[in-house]
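To whoever is on call:

I kicked off a structure prediction for a single chain this morning and the downstream step that reads the tokens threw a length-mismatch warning. I double-checked the sequence; it's 257 residues and nothing unusual in it as far as I can see. Pasting both halves so you can look.
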Amino acid sequence: MTNNEVDWVDANKPQEGSKILVGLEYLPTPIKTHLRNNMSKRPSIKNVYHVTEILYCLRKAYWKRMGGKNDFDLAGLWNIYRGNTFDKKWSPLFEHNQVTFKSERKHPEFEDLITLTGTLDFIWVDESSLDKVLYDLKMPKNVFYKKQYGAGKFYKGQVQTYLAMAHENGEYTDVHRCRVLMLADDLVIEEVPERPEMLDIMWERTFLFHKSLKDKNPNILRGAEAEWECGERFCPGSVEWRLTCKQYPINEGFPTY
């Protein structure tokens, strides 16, 4: 260490009798209770599916649709709370914000009318080109890897699907750009190419997900497409469910994106 760093350490040593606690588990109980009570729970509506539900692990979505409890740890609760808070504070700053899109198609096997829905965060004008851009706001734990590798397939797929849904409905037809805005200890924004075919891919996945629920057969669904989706931290299923899920084949032929 430099002399300045040594001086700083010496000047900021804990006082005698002080105690340093590190970890979210040390939050006062009323705050922890508040985090749990403010979890926004999207109701499960028959034949209505959300884009984020279809993008991620469909076996996890199956578990939740069949009544499984989604039990987040404190770190998960805090990340969701932080993201929701910034959504509520920042989205209204823009004229076009929190716009919900719907796409409807009949299931080819069951003839059920299925609805796919998703909500964009906001649309803003690029200040150099004056192009309108669809934004999705993300609050990851950190952006270390985002700086090197970008937003990742799930974040990208979400904004691409929203834009495709808007155009299918004849909305925002003058918008052809989308961005993922990721904010943590620093800011990373990735420009994501328009991808009209994303909506058809989402519908393939939605139809198969709907069939799995009707037949009560998660075996037809693909396993997690990213390793981090598995395990106690990110999969809300019980231990028994996670063990059962691992016994199902990966189903590599499942439509991906």
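Update from on-call: the warning came from a stale cache, not from the record. Cleared it. Sanity check on the structure: The mean pLDDT is 88.
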